[in-house]
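So, can you check what follows?
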Amino acid sequence: MKIYAWVENGQLFTTEDRSLAPSKAVEFEVESYDDLIYDGSQIRLKTQDEKLRELKSQKLSELKAYVAGLLAQTDYIITKIAEALAIGDTNQVDALKQKYSAQLQQREAIRQWNEQMKQAINNAQSLDALNSIVIEFKG
């Protein structure tokens, strides 16, 4: 798509409508508005490396939120164990660990999966490789 971009007060502005752009606007052919960047001195297209770093950051944030949601479902178990531990009731700690062993194993599996996903995201060498990574725990 064709867009027009300009900078005012250090902020990048864009529009697809030439009639809305000031005369100083520069024309770009882009796939997305996100393809442009103002680097402090000029408006330019982002490099593939910049796009990759940006997408990695987004994917890692998405993963973090997703994993937090998965773990939140069983956080009450950790709280119960921590409370029993805080008062020194080791029998209660052992009983809780046994009672909730399946959930604790699931939490550990989620954490291991999370580490594998982080590594896969960080190791991705292209936008296609990164886009092919689906954040979905199937454990």
Q: What stands out?
A: The longest strand covers residues 2-8. The radius of gyration is 24 Å.
